[in-house]
Amino acid sequence: MTSLNDEPAGRIRSIGEFFALARAMELDAATRYKETSRQLRAQGETALAAVFDGLAETELGHIRQVDQWQDHEGDGASARLPWSIPDTFDASPEEMAGTKLLTPYQALASAVRHEQRAFAFWTYVAAHAEAADVKDAAERMALEELEHVSLLRSERRKAFHAGRLAGQPAGEEAVTLAGLAAIERRVAELIESDAPSVPDIEMRSALGAAARDASAKLDELHAVEPAEFSVPALPDERTSDISACAEYLAEAYLRLAERTQNPRVLGVIQDLAKVAIFRLGILRAEDPADLA
């Protein structure tokens, strides 16, 4: 079960504060999902936007449930939030919409983790509540979040199988250094053949040369470190997307730098990671979709 990013900032002192916090958390989730959808749709990612639209509608349904519960309890008076709502998300809407590696499965997996953190939050609140009605309400909310986890996990499984049928990786894939070398060569080809991706001729030439140099270093290192390692997957439909390939390589280098035990490999990979992050920044600055 995913744990909280941070412990709650304090205790809930009344049932009014409980309802204020519960509603604010559900509204924050709906707002985040809607904003992610808006940004994805602006980039032409309509299929992914639809996933986040569905998540937003689910959260709006949760808000209606909280409102009905509050009305049933006869506590219609609004109370102020006792403190700022907790952060239960993996990333901001800008970060979610900004990645070129996102798939429906990963979007739903992130939503599952959000609901798991919400469950952990309400469990913590219940355990530390002084008022009996707040404790009971927090326990009920925790159980409802657990039901949300179950429903989203079911949707995640559907997305996993649909992705496999479409040849789309679920979230992680095994790769070797030789495999990364091949993608560096692909990036060099894409940069050199697609002038609009980097309008500056000198920068385009420099990035292409750097990618080919990285490819040669990776091929050489493969003889030292032939093992596979796990990295965020590159969807098949993104293999001709320069920004997606560049993001994939940056993520792969950072992941490998955390895990390798070989000092020689670590030194080279850290250098490649710096170049990859710089390259990704250049490509994103030139990508109209990232400026929308």
TrEMBL record:
This is Rubrerythrin diiron-binding domain-containing protein. GO terms for molecular function: metal ion binding; oxidoreductase activity. InterPro entries: Ferritin-like, Ferritin-like_SF, Rr_diiron-bd_dom. It comes from the Bacteria. It holds the Pfam family Rubrerythrin. Residues 17-68 form the Rubrerythrin diiron-binding domain.
